[in-house]
Design goal:
Elements: E1 8-9, E2 34-41, E3 44-52, H1 63-67, E4 70-72, E5 75-79, E6 85-88, H2 90-103, H3 111-124, E7 136-145, E8 158-167, E9 175-179, H4 197-212, E10 217-221, E11 229-232, E12 235-241, E13 244-247, H5 258-269, E14 274-276, H6 281-289, E15 293-300, E16 304-313, E17 316-319, H7 327-340, E18 350-353
Parallel strand pairs: 1-3, 9-10, 9-16, 13-14
Antiparallel strand pairs: 2-3, 2-8, 4-7, 5-6, 5-7, 6-18, 7-8, 10-11, 11-12, 12-13, 12-15, 15-16, 16-17
Helix pairs in contact: 5-7
Bound molecules: 2-OXO-4-methylpentanoic acid (COI).
Length: 355
């Protein structure tokens, strides 16, 4: 049971909620009223509290700005059919957050601290959780190095912040992607499995080039001559090949997606055969030529699932079917039903905030 007793909560005197157009929820634009903050100093986290969302100040020397010690999470809270709010898979996000922090030499925090801040924040900003189809309250926990010094070193001070904002559907149409055969997102021994800011910054240039060529995203590969597929844009990637749901196996160059894991679990429940195995661009091309690539889609917290309508392999563009009631749609619908309380929460994924 999480209580508010130990946490200082300073509420806003002027909510911005009435200014929000809930019919126009562009991703990343609207921020809810409050934020969680805690500081790490002298080997410990302290001063966990909630305050009105607003600017924070620091000097230009803080280490995060120079050497990129910055790690984040992306989570969601949903409006349930009974009006309550559910936060999806807190523990799974927490575990990944700790792995990311560890890889970047940044300090862990207890699950209790993570939950306490998060749950109190979402309780307070519950009116911001939208209810329309495909919408949610996106939650962004992050930690950055805040020591004021520009010498190259592991920071000894950090700031933890969590804010949230209502979001609508991430993509409004199926994606056109290309297999990226020059740039790579991550390699073995690198930081690909960690949700650190640099992974995203480094992907912008190749993604920008792909967009100039008319694509929405790139399919990242492992950089080997076989072009083994790893991820799709900022999402994990799944293919339905001859009725089997296939996704690349987790490794140190692939993000352990919470949606990816949920999709695999629910595929099993729906009797869909799954394989976590290497998929090369060559195999994809052969499957496309034989018409046995039934579906392709990305999975991620922001998008939930984004269907892929075409894949470019070495300059050749192949169409991919986007069925109305295919594997992706069936799993996504079940996932939505669990999150909103229409289907039983067998796996204990929801933390329900009763309002
Ligand atoms: C997510 O899917 O939540 C992501 O982290 C991708 C992007 C919004 C950064």
């Amino acid at each position: 049971m999480i209580t508010t007793e130990s946490m200082l909560i300073k509420k806003t005197s002027k909510s911005r909620l009435s200014e929000v157009d809930f019919h126009d929820l562009e991703f990343g634009k609207i921020i809810s009223d409050h934020m969680v903050i805690s500081d790490y100093k002298n080997d410990d986290w302290s001063n966990l509290h909630i305050e009105p969302f607003g600017d924070i100040s620091f000097t230009p020397t803080i280490l995060a700005l120079h050497y990129g010690q910055m790690v984040f999470e992306g989570m969601k809270a949903f409006r349930m059919t009974d009006g309550n709010v559910s936060i999806f898979r807190i523990e799974k996000h927490y575990e990944r957050f700790m792995r990311s922090l560890d890889r970047m030499c940044m300090p862990a925090m207890s699950l209790r601290m993570f939950e306490e801040g998060l749950i109190n924040l979402i309780k307070l900003d519950a009116p911001w959780v939208p209810s329309s189809e495909g919408s949610a309250l996106y939650i962004r926990p992050f930690v950055f190095a805040s020591e004021e010094r520009f010498g190259v070193k592991i920071s000894s001070e950090y700031k933890y912040i969590v804010f949230s904002g209502p979001v609508g559907p991430y993509y409004n149409k199926p994606l056109r992607v290309k297999v990226e055969d020059h740039y790579i997102r991550a390699t073995h021994g690198g930081t690909g499995f960690a949700k650190c800011a640099g992974n995203y910054g480094g992907s912008f240039y190749p993604t920008h080039l792909a967009k100039m060529q008319g694509f929405d995203q790139v399919l990242w590969t492992d950089g080997s001559p076989d072009l083994n597929i790893e991820e799709s844009g900022t999402m994990n990637v799944m293919f339905v090949i001859d009725g089997v749901l296939v996704t690349p196996p987790l490794s140190d160059s692939i993000l352990d997606g919470v949606t990816r894991d949920s999709f695999l679990t629910l595929a099993h429940e729906l009797g869909i055969h799954t394989q976590q195995r290497t998929v090369s661009a060559l195999e994809l091309e052969a499957a496309l030529q034989k018409n046995i690539l039934n579906e392709a889609f990305g999975t991620g917290t922001a998008a939930v699932a984004g269907p892929i309508q075409s894949i470019d392999i070495k300059g050749k563009d192949y169409s991919v079917p986007v069925p109305e009631n295919g594997v992706m749609v069936k799993i996504k619908n079940l996932l939505t039903d669990i999150r909103t309380g229409k289907a039983p929460d067998k796996y204990h994924w929801n933390t329900v905030i009763k309002l």
